[in-house]
Write a structure and sequence with these properties.
Elements lengths: L3 E4 L8 E7 L3 H8 E3 L12 E9 L2 E11 L10 E7 L2 H13 L3 E2 L4 H8 L5 H12 L3 H11 L2 H25 L9 H31 L1 E7 L5 H9 L17 E7 L2 E7 L9 H16 L2 E7 L6 H10 L4 E6 L9 H6 L9 E4 L8 H13 L14 H22 L4 H19 L5 H9 L6
Parallel strand pairs: 1-7, 8-10, 8-11, 11-12, 12-13
Antiparallel strand pairs: 1-2, 2-6, 3-4, 4-5, 5-6, 9-10
The structure holds guanosine-5'-diphosphate (GDP).
């Protein structure tokens, strides 16, 4: 494969910036522009050594650098890899990069290093996808899940399931080829039991997707309530900083603000919305519309009500909007004289599909904050994940293939039930086998591989 180069670190002034080169000519090209202090060529140096020296453009010194040498196959891509640690200036990095291009490297495509690691057989597709998830993980739990995927946990699981399926495909084929010596007596009961077993594991993975997705992307959380109930203040309480504008004039949170926040390993993507309230003010109206659409999009609604005032018809309007959503009701301003109690507010939820839990909070002194965080974790993850061993699928491509595999296995069960000929069983077993193969990248088209890696960041 040709030799590719990329600036792997962010292009902003920083201590160091790294350029990576991979391919057959990586070392030869690096030797053209690197002068080691010990005068030794990289070509003649041992693998996994670090070299101090200068990048030169003819006689001109471009930068003082450290060069890391990783010879094939012991490298990220399994090809010869050279990493140059430059100073982190934008101009410096661009200059060194351009020199590499002038000397025969090609600028890499996004994700091309990881794609090579995959194509050269060092990692499977789930591990490759986990690289990107790890880089973009926003919370501790997402990071942990990506790391276990990266270490091949998903790969192992899928590989084992495929092996089990393959055993039965082979058995059917052998019996069909040689019916005199291979009997399939009692085979169908055995197969059915196995299929149930495999299907259970696959369905478990499919089920994990909702939690996995939320773990990866965060819980989209809409904060709603009447003007002045304390929505912005609650947002600030959660964020622990003054991010939203808080004022005493009603309806000043006119637009939506978005902020992500890690609560004990889980990400909340918070959307602050204007109060849900009838209004003639055009700007305010747009805000209300957004609040309504925010509720539709939200995984969780935090409904803020003011405990120091009496509830009114607007609270009922909000309650009807959030009915059926996962929501938590925050009876805020608990530090003030109480005019509305939990019981009173609860009465408004009579007849609702889901009655939300009501918590007293004070955005002013932080009361209820920890309780709120615990409740959210309980709501989304209780009993579903232990955060230890279980694999959570957070990738839609993988989930879709799991669904295809599961559907194919269902067809196998139906064929057994209807006493269909064995080759029917084998066809559907094959398609389950193929769908699982696609997950780990063993039966995957070039187009799909290109698409997956094009979503990666540059230099990875
Ligand atoms: P929003 O319109 O719902 O976003 O409400 P704000 O967050 O702007 O709050 C409206 C007013 O209520 C501000 O003067 C806040 O300081 C005040 N406020 C908000 N939460 C509390 C609270 O828990 N206790 C007290 N005493 N005042 C609060």
């Amino acid at each position: 494969m040709d030799t590719i180069a990329a600036i792997c670190t962010a292009l902003s002034p920083s201590g160091i910036g790294i350029i990576r080169i991979s391919g057959e000519e990586a070392i030869t090209i690096a030797d053209k522009i690197f002068k080691g202090a010990d005068k030794k060529k990289l070509k003649e140096s041992d693998s996994h050594t670090i070299h101090y020296g200068h990048i030169v453009d003819g006689n001109e010194i471009v930068d003082e650098v450290l060069v890391m040498l990783m010879k094939a196959p012991r490298s990220y891509t399994m090809e010869d890899v050279v990493e140059i640690d430059c100073h982190g200036g934008i101009l410096v990095l661009k200059k060194v990069f351009n020199l590499l291009i002038e000397n025969g490297c090609r600028p890499s495509e996004p994700g091309e290093f990881t794609k090579r690691a995959f194509l050269n057989g060092r990692i499977d597709l789930t591990s490759a996808e986990a690289v990107m998830d790890l880089i973009s993980s926003k919370s501790e739990m997402a990071r942990k899940n990506s790391v276990s995927m990266l270490n091949g946990k998903m790969y192992e699981l899928i590989k084992n399931l495929r092996e089990e399926i393959l055993y039965y495909i082979a058995k059917i084929e052998a019996a069909l080829d040689d019916p005199e010596h291979m009997s399939l007596d009692g085979f169908e009961e055995e197969l059915q039991e196995k299929i149930n077993n495999i299907q259970e594991k696959i369905n478990q993975l499919i089920k994990s997707y909702d939690s996995g997705k939320i773990l990866k992307e965060g819980i989209n959380t809409a904060i709603v309530g009447k003007p002045n109930a304390g929505k912005s203040s609650i947002l600030n309480m959660i964020l622990n900083e003054e991010r939203a504008i808080v004022t005493e004039i009603k309806g000043t949170t006119r637009d939506t603000l978005e902020e992500s926040y890690d609560i004990g390993g889980i990400t909340l993507n918070l959307i602050d919305t204007a109060g849900i309230h009838e209004s003639d003010d055009v700007v305010e109206k747009i805000g209300i519309e957004r609040a309504k659409s925010a509720i539709e999009k939200a995984d969780l609604v935090l409904y803020v009500a003011d405990s120091s005032t009496e509830t009114d018809v607007f609270d009922d309007q909000i309650i009807s909007l959030i009915d059926g959503k996962k929501s938590i009701c925050l009876l805020n301003k608990s530090d003030l004289q109480r005019e509305t109690t939990k019981q009173e507010l609860n009465a408004h939820f009579e007849g609702c599909l889901i009655k939300p839990v009501i918590l007293y909070t004070s955005a002013k002194n932080g009361e209820g904050k920890e309780e709120l965080f615990e409740m959210i974790k309980e709501m989304f993850f209780a009993g579903e994940i232990s955060f230890n061993d279980e694999i959570m699928v957070s990738n839609l491509r993988q989930k879709n293939d799991l669904v295809i595999a599961s559907d194919s296995l269902k067809k196998v069960s139906e064929s057994i039930e209807n006493s269909m000929p064995e080759d029917f069983l084998s066809i559907d077993l094959m398609s389950a086998y193929a769908a699982l193969g696609e997950i780990i990248g063993e039966e995957v088209s070039d187009d799909l591989v290109d698409k997956i890696f094009s979503e990666f960041c540059m230099g990875k």
